[in-house]
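Budget justification note: compute hours in this period were largely spent on complex prediction jobs such as the one shown. Inputs:
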Amino acid sequence: MEFWKIFSKGLILENPILVLALSLCPALAVTSSISTALTMGLTVTFVITTNNVVVSLIRKLVNPKVRVPIYIISIATIVTVAGLLLQAYFPLLYKDLGIYLELVVVFAIILARAEVFASKNNVVRSFMDGFGMGCGFIIAMLIIGVIRELIGTGSLLGVNLLGASYPPALIMILPPGAFILIGYLVALFKLIVKYWEKRQKVREEAVS
Amino acid sequence: MSVENSHQEDSANQLIVSSSPHILSNDSTQKIMWTVVAALMPAVIFAVYYFGVPAFRTLLAGSLSALIFEALVQKIRKKRVTVSDGSALLCGLLLAMCLPPAVPLFVPIIGSFIAIVIAKHSMGGLGQNIFNPAHIGRAALMVSWPVAMTTWTKMPSVIDTVTSATPLNILKQQGYEALIQTFGSQSDMYTALFLGFRNGSIGETSVLLLVIGGIILIYKRYIDWVAPVFMIGTVGILTWAFGGSNGLFSGDPLFHMMAGGLVIGAFFMITDYVTTPITRKGKIIFAVGAGAITVLIRLLGGYPEGVCYSILLMNCVTPLIDRFIQPAQYGRK
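Corresponding output:
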């Protein structure tokens, strides 16, 4: 139950992109199609989970004064591994992600989870936290990717869904469309969180 | 009855305590908006006469869908439905006037959606929007469907649509000599631009009729004359100085002042109450800035016309202008 709580908070209530608003850069840059959005989501999940485990393991050895450089070295190592794996097995996706794959090193969400969670909790809890945050990241990236690709090209994963007569709205696969869409999604998630908190309050009052 | 309720219901009979200015005018939002719509009518009627049915269809689709979206959003937001105040109609009309006459029908409708729902009501509704909604709509359409937005039908309209370029397009791609050739002579070109016999968006036809509408608004004191004069003047001076190919002061200011959407932009867009500065000094800064950016885009940019983007860019700095140009309080320097 406790692990489920740690895992699930990243999905919606503390969704890294749409609620915490950390790492908006990849959410804008690589969500113009589902395949790149999903690849980036999986990569970030891998990096954030592994890094949380590493940071949690070494949390008692690290001098607090030099913790940030050490976390960054850890993240950079893991990102390099992920990059080499992608380059070896999925060269086309690697090419599509381009510079943004290396930029995963400086994604705020990864350092933030290391700093606020993994450095204070044990390995299993840190793993659950990283995995939950990663899944929340994937969810947000997929929502954005599906909407942008569908409206911007009329197809999903390259399969035309809306017919040949649909005039694709190019704005959605360009940066302004991503900004507008993320704005509305943030508003939607705020609504969900608000509703959830209200329900929670009613429940607590009913218990007490 | 709670305090809040009584406040709302009796507000008409209450003594209103507020800060200055205390002078009230009889001009309501409703009256001003409908007057602006009326001032646009000569140009609209001429455009329908000149471009024919396609233009009428585009104008109708733009205005009607703007009204419908406004009513829908106000219903959803649980606000009073104020469709009758004319602001939504004006927005849809101005948007449609920024479009090519024979554009596919979904373009003005989606444009109205973007203008009303995204640019106006997502920012908080009438009076809260940072950017001119009609121009946000046009900019989004321009990015989304660049081909449909730059296909100009040759007029008078026939069943087989023949595409041809706008004067500014010709200037950008083929140069000034080719431009004069398409009109015959230089004076013919000026006449055509002034009276409105040219290709282009619905709203960029007749300089004469647009100026008449603008002068009505200036006479009624709904808009300040400095904004249009300074914007068009800036464009004239800068294109005269830098627009020519034979060094300084060899450009054609008259052409640039009459071409494209400059006149409708200067009289009807940068005089919008919400998105432009309040003070007269601020209005002058805004107008000069918009004119300068327009010239930059026309002479150096990738697009042939830059009125829309220049106004949107200046909308960004409107709060800044208002902050720095504050009128002195009475009794202080």
